[in-house]
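User: I'm writing a short report section on ligand binding and want a predicted complex to refer to. Could you take this sequence and beta-D-glucopyranose and write out the structure as tokens? A short remark afterwards would be nice.
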Amino acid sequence: MKKRILSLLLAGAMMASLFVGCGKTADTAATDDKAATEETTDKTDAAATDDTAKADDAAKADTESKDGAVQVGVVLPTKDEPRWLQDQAQFEKILGDAGFTNQVLFSQGSSATEKTNIETLLNQGIKVLIICAQDGAAASAGVEEAKAAGVTVIAYDRLITGTDAVDYYVTFDSKAVGAAQGQYLIDNAPSGKSNIPLYLYAGAATDNNAFIFFEGAWEALQPKIADGTFVIANSSEAEALKDKATLDRDQESKIIGQITTDWDFNVAKSKAESHLTAVGAEMKGDVAVLAPNDGTSRSIADVFATDKDVTSYLITGQDTEKASVQYVIDGKQSMTVFKDTRTLAADSVDMAVSILKGETPKTDTTYNNEKVDVPAKQTAIQVVTKDNVQSVLIDSGYYEAADFTGLK
Ligand code: BGC
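Assistant: Sure. The structure tokens for the complex follow:
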């Protein structure tokens, strides 16, 4: 009986939290956290009925009384990329609103730290683990340990591969991210021109998403490489495969092996420098650059901007990191892709609530992780350019206008 009441209370609290608008996030997440929580609480109180507000309080009291046991633990890959601070800020708000003790740990780019983080959470008594893996294959050991301890595992944003110890996957439509990046380059390339130099970059080969992003981008770009609109400037492997409309994993691995940034700004910068040093004038002028995310995009853009033989460059990104939104406003990065972390964090906490209630969470697709088909919940993405920063990011309350200069 008590369990049923708690379930209802949690459900009520979740509903309330899901309808709450969220304030600013990202770079300032850590310092702004308290203010953000207060802001969210105010909005919750204003929006919710008395009953829901009471349910919220009761749910909090109930979960807090469990001898301090943490029911839901979150592990994120690194604090060094603003992308994951956006997710952290959302988790802290949403978990708090749902009455859970906040427990978000960072692996700081290390699979060993990630495993220790999982073990710390297991010792704290978690029932559900929400994890964005540092390395999708290496994370299997940690989640198998969690599974053996009776914990339900939700892979967050990055799929964990080669194990049946992943119960659910909450993700953005990553193929659509890559497709949107490729399509942007096609739609904005100088019209009527051919042999436009195309520089390709990818994410880390240890991240399954890097393959999905590249797959989406390749399938968009390949017809325009095959018809001579673009000419690949920096990958002999991609050049050798340019007639293939779709690539298998091995073919993608070969290309990514050459053009990976490892999701590292410095790797991205030095690769871009050496690529521009290696090519002749025919590979400069007006160029197009497929950059996989915002951090690497800013690094690569800075390199292309300082090459006097590069007349203009188009460059992609993703994550709507504040620094990149400013680059987009300033014309230094052409586009970014908005992946609304409010939705992803809410979806995974929602799943956790269902699991704790003994229900089967709602999913809408599956992803094969080389071992099993993992039931997944997928969220759409949105392209952001100079023209819609205001409507997509400011009007929706994701960021504040004051975070940027020169916003029109
Ligand atoms: C995420 C991207 C992020 C990248 C680097 C990917 O798995 O989906 O949003 O930019 O990792 O951290």
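A remark for your report: The pocket of beta-D-glucopyranose is lined by residues 81, 83, 157-158, 203, 207, 209, 263, 293, 318-319, 339 (CB under 6 Å). The radius of gyration is 22 Å.
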